[in-house]
Specification:
alpha/beta, Rossmann fold, Hypothetical Protein, Haloacid Dehalogenase-like Hydrolase, Chain: A, domain 2, 2 domains, nine-stranded mixed sheet, 8 helices, about 25% strand
């Protein structure tokens, strides 16, 4: 099988491990078989930690047979620290859907990256129209940046810094990152969206003025849908949580969607339900309610 960008899709997604929660409806809400949640600004507190209440809720859901999967803009290298919060399945959907990562094995199971040819074309066309733009790339091997790219996070030791990002295109590129110092953030993102057209997908994870570009058809929703289907789960059995525009497609796909109280206005408008803020354990509270509903319905659990 070949990704829309022309880069082969490698590996596969994990298969069910004998876990099943029968479908139940409590009131007007269907008890989920799968909870899909964004991390930063949604599940994690503002300091990037997982609260004790959230850890307990995640563990209780896993024990009850409700899968919880993290669906994040973070690259694989940024989720290893969360290994204690990831469920039995071990899976995190990373890089806005470009990689399916097994945290327990520290292995990328599937990737839908962009080819070097596509990244080169995108960088060339954006440079021509947006002088001063600077790029970085996220790959399985890590991040590589141009010398003019100053991102919001420090570079890991040993990360390549080059004159032009094309010099560091090894393997598939999960995300092409772009900044234009001095540009008005929203206007810059609109310009990038217009210029890339249908060659790629622009995701906005809420980092001001940072364009996160993925291959065509690569979104959180698309990868989540494939992973859920591999476990025999359809969208009607999924609850999804998010806070930023890159979560909108996932929220639209899921049968029940929640915007945390601190979500951006378009996300609050699109979600079917609202929950507490990330710093108030909003996702954990809804998971606790799902578990209460499951117990009230006499839900069947097995592994």
């Amino acid at each position: 099988m070949t990704a829309d960008s022309g880069t082969p899709v490698t590996g596969g997604v994990s298969q069910p491990r004998g876990r099943h929660v029968a479908a139940h409806v409590a009131g007007d809400v269907r008890v989920p078989r799968l909870v899909a949640t964004d991390l930063d600004g949604t599940l994690l507190r503002s300091d990037g930690t997982v609260s004790a209440r959230t850890r307990a809720a995640l563990a209780a859901a896993d024990e009850a047979g409700i899968d919880v999967v993290f669906v994040t803009a973070r690259p694989p290298r940024w989720v290893d620290s969360l290994i204690g919060a990831v469920g039995t399945h071990g899976i995190v959907i990373c890089a806005n859907g470009a990689a399916v990562y097994d945290v327990h094995a520290r292995e990328v199971l599937a990737e839908r990256g962009m080819s070097a040819e596509l990244v080169t074309r995108l960088a060339r066309e954006l440079r021509a129209e947006l002088p001063g733009i600077a790029f970085a790339v996220e790959r399985q091997a890590g991040i590589g940046t141009e010398s003019g790219f100053s991102g919001p996070h420090p570079l890991p030791p040993g990360s390549p810094v080059v004159t032009m990002v094309e010099e560091t295109l090894t393997g598939a590129t999960y995300k092409l990152l772009a900044l234009r110092p001095g540009a008005e953030p929203d206007g810059f993102l609109r310009a990038v969206t217009r210029l890339i057209g249908d060659l790629a997908v622009l995701a906005d994870s809420g980092a001001s003025g940072l364009a996160e570009i993925s291959g065509p058809g690569v979104t959180k929703a698309a990868t989540l849908a494939r992973w859920a289907a591999s476990r025999g789960i359809g969208p009607h059995d999924v609850w999804a949580f998010g806070d930023a525009p890159n979560d909108l497609d996932m929220l639209a796909w899921a049968g029940t969607s929640f915007a945390v109280a601190n979500a951006q206005p378009p996300v609050r408008a699109a979600a079917t339900r609202a929950c507490g803020a990330n710093d108030d354990d909003g996702v954990a509270i809804e998971i606790e309610r799902a578990l209460d509903q499951l117990r009230a319905c006499g839900g069947v659990r097995s592994r």
